[in-house]
Amino acid sequence: MEPLLRPFGNRVITNIGEWPKDPVRDIPADVAWYAYSCSQCGYCVEECDQFYGRGWESQSPRGKWYWLREYMEGREEWDQFMVDTILVCTTCELCNLRCSAALPIEQSWMKLRGRLVNDEKRMTFPPFEMMAEALRKEGDIWAGYRKDRASWFPRDLEDKHGPGRKAKKAYFAGCTASYVEHDIAMASVRLLDAAGVEFTILGEKENCCGTPMLVAGKWDLFAETMKKNIQAVKEAGADTVITSCPACDMMWRKVYPEWSKKLGIEYGIEARHYSEVVADKIESREFSFPQNDLEPCTVCWHDSCHIGRVSGVYEPPRQLLRAIPNVNLVEMSHNRKEAHC
Fold it and tell me: Which of 59, 60, 128, 171 can bridge 50 by disulfide, Cβ–Cβ 3.0-4.6 Å?
């Protein structure tokens, strides 16, 4: 019965102990409270991808909460291993759904990243340092040249949707689609064009969404990058950003609005995954996939952590797949909120 009852239990708001007003040995007051609130039940352990990938309980939420208690009691000290232990969390947020005390686990690790790396200047992972330097110089994390940012864009769509064209919607490709997986960006814009969506792209003005810098704890660089992207979208005349990358979607939909409010920046931008935009066109009968002579095939959709648990986009991708002729959609054993990282 536990799997059936757990979602109801997670909706119960618990109040455990007294909330400290000040940091406890440099641990933010709210995170300190959560650490002492953890019942050490272990529901989170088996679901943590760092645990089932490594087999070390110190990598799981329960292990981290226990270590933080020991640190606050003066029996442990920070070293690079423990800094890395906070940093290796993939931010999948599955633990948040499993926690019997409904603690904001992933958000707590995120807060500690900023405290450890941005404020205390502790070392982050070397790859994050390389990404940061590439971002400062060229605006991306793959060390590609800024002049090549939009090289993936189909030439036959430039007059209609290319850089410099004003539109209410802007497609934000992201670093990986711009420099590595060109097929993702190309397929996305061709699909949007076929569906009759008016949009533009930012071209060389587009920067990394900033997710790697946020999770690396390099929050000053993240904020600087976010400001550049918001300005570029507004200069393009857009008030809606269309994404294909789940991490980019998470930034524009969830993180940018929060940080804009914190920094006093006027935001006013809506974020939508391309599947949401095309699904709307299918529902309104403005677009349909053409018939094809392909062999019937069976496919499944993997709900990524960020587009699923964070952004809450579950049905639109499935609507698109069901709308393609000769395609049969089936579900993985772990899907929607239960999907694994």
Answer: 59
How far apart CA 228 and CA 242 sit, in angstroms, is 17
Reference 222, options 250, 249, 254, 259; nearest CA is 259
* Radius of gyration, alpha carbons of the chain: 22
Q: Are 246 and 307 in contact (CB under 8 A)?
A: yes
Q: Give the position of tokens 């999907």.
A: 339
Same domain, 55 and 104: yes
pLDDT in tens, 217-258: 999 999 999 999 999 999 999 999 999 999 999 999 999 999
CA distances from 15 to 33, 34, 181, 292, 312 (A): 10, 10, 46, 57, 27
**Tally of domains within the chain:** 2
Burial class (CB in 10 A: 0-12, 13-18, 19+), 73: exposed
Same domain for 138 and 74, yes or no, is no
Which structure tokens are listed for 22?
Answer: 């000040």
Q: Which of 232, 193, 183 is nearest to 210 (CA)?
A: 232
Whole-number Å distance between alpha carbons of 65 and 41: 12
Q: Among 119, 135, 165, which residue terminates a domain?
A: 119
Domain with 153, as residue range(s), is 127-338
If one compares 16 and 276, the residue with the highest pLDDT of the two is 276
Q: What is the pLDDT of residues 103-138, one digit of tens each?
A: 998 899 999 999 999 999 999 888 999 999 999 999
